[in-house]
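>> received
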Amino acid sequence: MNRAMFSGVAGLKTHQYRLDVIGNNIANVNTYGYKYQRAVFSDVFYQTLSGASAGTANRGGTNPTTVGYGSTLGSIQTMMTQSSMQNTGRGLDVAITGEGYLQVMDADGNIFYTKAGLLDYDANGYLVDMNGNFVLGATTTDGAPDTQRIKLDNVGAVEPAVPSVEEKINGVTYTIKGSKTSAYGNIGVTIVSNETLADDIPAQAIISNTGSVTIQLNANKTFTSLEDLSSAINSAIRRANGNADLPSGELSITADKADLFANGGLTGKQIAGQNFGVDLGSISGATKGFFDGRLTVNKVSNGFTGEGAFTAFTADFTPGDTTQNPPTEAFWTIKMTTPTGVYTGTLKEGSTAATMLLMKDGTKLDDDDYIEVNKPSFTAFTEQYMARQNPPLTTPPTAAVTWTDDTYGKTINNPDGTTTTVPFPVAKPSAPATDLGFSTKTFTLTGGTEGGPVTLDQLTGISIGADGTVSVTRPDEGVISVGKITLANFANPFGLSPTGKNYYTASANSGAPQLCDPGSGGTGALKSSALEMSNVDLSQEFADMITAQRGFQANSRVITVSDTMLEELINLKR
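>> returned
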């Protein structure tokens, strides 16, 4: 009876261990990287009541007769099977897609192994895990697997550099540079024109609270070169900044085209302007018009090439011929003569559709070379000619005649006894626009730095590759690799000893760690923005909990029954 009672007690203890293991598994069902455990029982020593005997020729053999003393906890096994992945969207989370463990080191230099890849970085720039322990690997991407701490700002030092910017406008690349090596010189510069600035102010600067600068160029001021423009801008900045330069120092503007300021320079309006097409030609001094104002210039074409003072304005009249079948119409052939060509237009008797007349140079093949004038009716033009004659005509001409406009080139007697010759209008040809278009861009200077070691705050991105490569992004240098995470693999990963905080340590039966790059040496690759979930099967744990409960209950009954039998034995004395 005592043996049965002791067996029951042993069974209670082992089932309690099993329930402890099950409870721990269920508690960690949502612990990243957790590997479930199972309690394995074994029977304990036996009392031999009779030994075994060998069989003889006359008698058969007998088996041993033994009575056991219950069960004991054989082992608690950690099941290192792979679990599923959960996408987290966080780039510093990593999961191992197969065998292998991350290496981490605490402040005392102890190395632990984990499947939980919840990584981060500390204020000193080291890659750490969620417990603040250093993640280990190689400090170079081409180095052998190692146990070194990985430093994210391990990108060396940078050379001092002045802030600068390149912008391409209408096919021309402009470069604006500062003169001082300072990160505070990384500012934005906007260039516009201002029609209201006084004649003696080439440019005016407005500096915002954030340090950005708006330059207002005098729209009517002529600048002879980019150097002249840069000087005016720097003077304006000093006036607006208490006679001091900006942190970027003096600004200089250069271009990859040399003849921008040819033909006498460009105005502030042209420098800021956005006309990238054609500067239209003009006819100046023709405000009175031609032929007593019957024809006035409206505009010239994009391709107008006439240049110089006009020498004559004539209109040749050709009468209609009624003898023809059908009869021909009368018309005026109007000519405007410049040193570079004669522009001709026809005013027909029956034409009333258009209100403008295009005067073209017939010697040129380009149809876009014309002068557009307001078109009167044929009758009105003819009546004006009749009124101009001396004496005035009462009926239209019936023969060819020529009307020469004598408004220009005429000598006029002035009241003071002098004379003045009325100058002919002057034609200016159309030409490609000279606007530079500076107002179309904000020139944002970047890259300015005093130089020195790169600090963590200068990095804008951190990523981890499938092979463990840790890369950072620096705006002026792009993506830089700063190290590579090393995984540890074991001959017997089931022999690792759990220590808490998702960590394991090597044991005598796990074997020494074999260091590998992720994806090599039998290890899995890293998957960023993901974590390995717990491999606890909740349904299995609940089933095991039921059997553990029943086993505990049954063993408790053994103790109860043994106690009852002992009670009966004591009662025999009565």
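>> The CA atoms of residues 182 and 453 lie 14 Å apart.
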